[in-house]
Amino acid sequence: MIAEVILKVAGFEKFSGQVPYYPRPSYAGVERCFRAICYEAQGYPKKISDRFYAVMNDSSWHEELTLDILRRSSFKVHSEQMVVRCGEVIHKGSPFTIKGRIDGVLTDLSGVDRLLEHKAINHFTFERYSEEEFPADYLTQMAFYFVGLSKVQPEIREGILLIKNKNTSQYLEFFLDYNIPRDLLRVLDVIKSDGMRREGGEFSGLYHQAMERFAEVERHRKEKTLPPRQYEPGDWHCSYCGFGEPCNSSYEEEFASFSEGKEFPEIEEFVRKYIELTALKKDTDKSFEELKGEIKKAMEAGGLKKASVDGYLISLSLQKRKSLDKNLIPYEILKNAQKEDLIEVLNVRVEG
Description:
Number of helices: 11
Number of strands: 12
Oligomer: single chain
């Protein structure tokens, strides 16, 4: 009863029109789809789902919760949502000042100020950032904020990117500094709320690369062109994109224009490795299924659903899976419920 309407109610609150494109720090990172930005810059209609709006709104509430906790600590939080000027680019043929709103400045007991940026994300992305990856888009955004802050508080050279796991309420802190003249951002430490730590890293040119991307967006806007796809159709990024309809509708035409039969020695090494791994995978999959079958037959023959051998625990269990019986669904309803998705399929075989 509630689940069917709650997202629709949340969606009623979102802006009914389309916010025009303009260069801003949240659009600066390399992970954000460049093609989608160009669609937006050229005024294509953007469709945002009610669920996506709710997800973004949810992140804002997580930020408020975190800041409320910090206010009750020994840290002082101030300058929240302060507007900073992060540079100038050409937008719609005229100079345009890039502005951003920082989440705040954090002052410790010794009086040192640091830039604070808060993000709330899903569990799986949080785990990737915990283990090995770096949030490139968020780091680029912070580089812009450092540039903007340097005009009003030039003494601030360090910052904290604080990422919250929306599923588990764990936190991940990227402690960093930024050298503006060298455009060098250093992650000095990565700290998880459970005490886990891992090494940081250095990132050069984040700000200048982003400014070049903004200039490239302007070029595409002026020439009414689009860049190549950054992600394949069906990628998870595309499921959240508000420009899926125009992007997908043009893909078949673009694909039809690709040439055939050209000699392409540049990928010979990749193709050879692909063939080798494909053959290995087939043999491995076959052996895996055969071994699984032998273990199951032996367990069933012995009347066992749990057993142990040399420190390994083996178990059999029954699971019920629900599926739709399409024969019980009226044809018109079934037809209207179906949708088409474009996917790229790679096939590599030996010629002849």
